[in-house]
């Protein structure tokens, strides 16, 4: 089974997939834009008050007000601080209510913890916290992590911990359902990425970070036989170290310690978040470089695959002995290599760490910019929402509390990541193989997610800034902890809570765009730059503007 197959198991997925599947529930406070007053904005700070690192963002240019960016960053950091349990230094997955007395989710993940670590570095870089506070926060969290129960042979961490105690969660806090402790490849990838950032950004904690990182071996997830006849394999979604209640396959790719129970799924799509785990595994010599070309840019264009969203176009290239179909989807005069759901998160979150566009100008350098353009044009021109930026986030109105939002036209999923509350379906058909059922739908109450616009800021800084300013000013989707997680643009209903990872993406994007690539330059030092840059630089996607 592939990760992209319709048989995805919600119990083995990442936090985003899990919550989207309704397996976890946390309270969402709802409001409407019409009934909510705008968060009071302080007067712009004088230029002399801007942190030195901030002024290096000359490339942002245009009419971006740096005082506004800094205000957004300060408020976002305030929500991050409110998520952190004082006794452990671990952040909750999400909070609602006032920051002074928040309601915490009662669970966290390696991804959330990693997000807090890199956010702390950004907060220091922006002058929001002192160097001393940064060191204290990083030291506390890394010390806690060194004591947590984990899978010793691989060095990997479980997917769910109680943020207040650090205990592995076996009963879901909201409904009492049983949880089988799971070790996710992608969630451990984000935590390892954070360790690589903080060890270089703050030498005082390098020893603690390296001690954790040196034990993490992503070869534990690498199945060399996932694609028979292909010269490289794929990463499993993860594994259990006790027998789970779902399907599994028994094995141990490290041949170290007892066998584990691998998920039946593999991550087989290229434009999606698990590539951060691939980058790290390859850079550390735990996964062969050819693995990078074993994931699918798109699935084949033959009628056997007509259950997917649309028929791709493109040709074939060979890299590392692997035949790669460099296909793309067609949207508004662009050829774009799609993600599974057409969302900004899958496409651009790994780019927070690896400068993919500059290292691979003929692949990511083309595709990332077009992905951002597609989101903007869809939101403003096709759906006419007036705003843009779509990514998995809280659901305004709840039931469930979390949903996967995206631009269906640049996503492979047949079910689609919808862009509106009505779950409007876009189905253009699959060439001559299958007639589309909804090639020209009427879009409803669109849901925009501010963190998606922050991710886009690397490629369209002025447009992203203007979009966010409108979301704050017109939709009032802003509170004491920064932008709320999502807002429905017609009804004005706001998912009035803060999610740890989404806030970390906001700060990570600000750190890169306005602080001289602080996340990237600390992540890539050493083996990443020497290994990953030449690897990804040789590829040419089938993406581009149609002439």
Roughly what is the average pLDDT, rounded to an integer?
91
* Portion in beta strands: 15-25%
Shape: globular
Give start-end ranges of low-pLDDT stretches.
1-48, 56-60
Q: Largest beta sheet: what is the strand line-up?
A: 1-26-25-22
Helix share, percent: 25-40%
Counting DSSP E segments of at least 2 residues, the number of strands comes to 28
Total helix count?
15
Characterize the main sheet.
4 strands, antiparallel
- What Rg, in angstroms, do the CA atoms define? 22 Å
Classify the secondary structure makeup into a structural class.
alpha+beta
From the N-terminal CA to the C-terminal CA, the straight-line distance is 38 Å
Label this structure with key terms.
four-stranded antiparallel sheet, 547 residues, alpha+beta, 31% helix
Describe this structure in words.
With 547 residues, the protein is an alpha+beta fold. The strands form ten sheets. Strands 1-26-25-22 form a four-stranded antiparallel β-sheet, with no helix packed on it. The longest helix has 19 residues, at 364-382. The radius of gyration is 22 Å and the shape is globular.
